[in-house]
Specification:
93% of the residues lie in helices and 0% in strands. By secondary structure, the chain is mainly α. The chain has a domain at 2-98. The longest helix is centred in the middle third of the chain and has 93 residues, at 28-120. The model has no long low-confidence stretch (mean pLDDT 77).
Length: 139
């Protein structure tokens, strides 16, 4: 931007000198001042336009950054949800695996109860053997 300003300034000085040589000394000061004022007004408009354009560019860049941030947050939320789902599945698998040994404990407890019932005389030897075989078949 500074190079552009310097080039325009150099160009304007050249125009001023050209006008100065062509008009001569008659009312040179008034004409030169008038031209400088016109040029300043033109340049002020260009500078204002450049400033407005820069502001628009900044706003667009901020909007794009915000959109990217929102997309990133959505992706992170999706990944977190997927992670939680996988963790829940792993916990279910662990719970199922931990239930299997408790099933074996249930069988041993049932066998002990059957043995107690046999000792008390509630079950006969044949009934005890039959129920024992059924429990062992479940394993």
């Amino acid at each position: 931007m500074n190079n552009y300003r310097e080039a325009k300034r150099f160009e304007l000085c050249g125009l001023y000198n050209l006008l100065r040589m062509s008009i001569g000394n008659l009312k040179l000061e008034k004409i030169g001042l008038f031209i400088v004022v016109i040029i300043i007004d033109i340049m002020r408009g260009r500078w204002a336009s450049a400033a407005i354009g820069a502001g628009i560019a900044r706003n667009r860049a901020a909007g794009q950054a915000q959109a990217q941030d929102q997309a990133h947050q959505a992706e992170m939320a999706q990944l977190n949800a997927q992670h939680e789902k996988e963790m829940a599945q792993m916990q279910q698998q662990n719970a199922q695996q931990s239930q299997k040994p408790s099933g074996q404990e249930d069988v041993t407890q049932k066998l002990q109860k059957l043995a107690d019932l046999k000792k008390q005389g509630i079950l006969s030897e044949e009934e005890f053997q039959k129920l024992k075989m059924e429990l062992l078949a479940k394993l």
